[in-house]
DNA sequence: ATCTAAATACTCAAACACGC
DNA sequence: GCGTGTTTGAGTATTTAGAT
């Protein structure tokens, strides 16, 4: 465990008792570095313990390293507390940089022009509409807690004064309604990875050196991987709109736009309508379940959003998902059987996946195309 | 030069999927 | 059930940059 010493010796690890003792000392010192003689004394004490005596000599440097790392870890953890420039502006839990789960919007929108978003059309029934707003300070998107006021500037679009969720009045901002307010993006659950397709606009959690925020990004590619008990492990190659940087991110960093809801609805409808057995066989014959649906209008320029083929939650290896412009021609759908493990299906566009791993709900095939550089 | 903070490098163990 | 390969998290070592 741990990086082995450069002299090739065995890996070193502090025992639980030693860790407990050092933690106590660290606490006594209020998270400050103990004096050198304290570290030396600890090292000597550990070296003299029955477990180590004659076998392993604990160096003062090792004790010092432990304190350094521990202090850093503690600070890093505490710095994740809410704060606009903190590492996780909208954490869902301690471990994942996921946005807040939907919560009913407490404050209704102010009465404003028709360009101001309002609850109603387009929103799923019995779910309160929520919004997110783009901060002018850092260009990142934040959940809107309240709309406090609104104003009309003759020279430009209407603006609203927003209170960002989790922040105080000092962070309130006037934002352009037309450009910088929109329905809230949705954190993706494991089974929803199938609704994230290349070309899509998403809200993506970007972790920088000093801050980690949600920015607009476009999906360049999707690598479908086997789901396990931890959930979706697919990877998405994205390009951030604000700095054009590219990154491979897991689903947990992705929030999809509500405009893609229809995909999930269609997939759910298909799953309900088709018995599992039939789904397996019919999916082998791809055309039965390949449907044409428009890609989200906001994500792809009009001329590109012709017909996006979306396949039900089907495993895909080496996924370059079907190009946005592809029209399905059943005649071009071929089947091959040269892949290890059974029959394979070639999707239009050359995507191949083995039929023996098809399940009814989740992608279950891993692929390599984006891991090669790892 | 030394100290410190922060980040990265590196390895191991556990958990898991898969094939046999 | 067993062996193997992969992935992930945890823990320690090392490096780098800035401050003093």
TrEMBL record:
Q: Where is this region: Disordered?
A: 79-123
Q: Which UniProt keywords apply?
A: DNA-binding, Homeobox, Nucleus
Of the GO CC terms on this record, one is: nucleus
One MF term in the entry's GO annotations: chromatin binding
Which positions make up the DNA-binding region?
Answer: 15-78
PROSITE patterns (alphabetical): HOMEOBOX_2
Q: Which residues form a coiled coil?
A: none
| Membrane-crossing residue ranges in chain numbering | none
* Residue ranges occupied by any Homeobox domain in the UniProt entry: 13-77
Pfam families recorded: SAWADEE (PF16719)
Q: Where in the cell is it found?
A: Nucleus
Under InterPro entries, the record lists:
HD, Homeodomain-like_sf, SAWADEE_dom, SHH1/2
Instruction: Give the PANTHER family listed for this entry.
Output: PROTEIN SAWADEE HOMEODOMAIN HOMOLOG 2
**The protein's name:** Protein SAWADEE HOMEODOMAIN-like protein 2-like
